Amino acid sequence: MSSSNTDDRLDDFSDRIEILEVELQREIEKNQNGRLVEWNSALDCLMVGFGPVVAMYIEARIKGKLIPITPEQFERIELIMNGWLEIYARYHGEDIEANFSIREASLLFLETHDIQDVAEMLTKIPKKINQQLRGSR
Length: 137
Hints:
Blueprint lengths: L2 H28 L8 H23 L9 H21 L10 H11 L2 H9 L3 H9 L2
């Protein structure tokens, strides 16, 4: 792999981190008014934020396409992921202080192939609560 190709991939990776940070900040600003119970918004958090962060990390770790992640980038990725999980929990009426590992989330996703299951396993917000919320609409 040429140095130029690696540099391009690193730049793309950094750009993707910045985009995910901006999306997270928008969501935080949108939801500063406390806890909300919104089923569709919780799922959107998984699709717009949490899932893409996990996918980006997995993609960066793929053998043969390994992107060297700096300690600063790693920390930013985990902060973004945990921020999305906190918002996800807030949409279910729960306040959590997320401090999960991107590695753990990625391994769970590779096992389950379901980003909602991963969020539920990490946050301990059980599926039955989600189903109750959906059924009450």
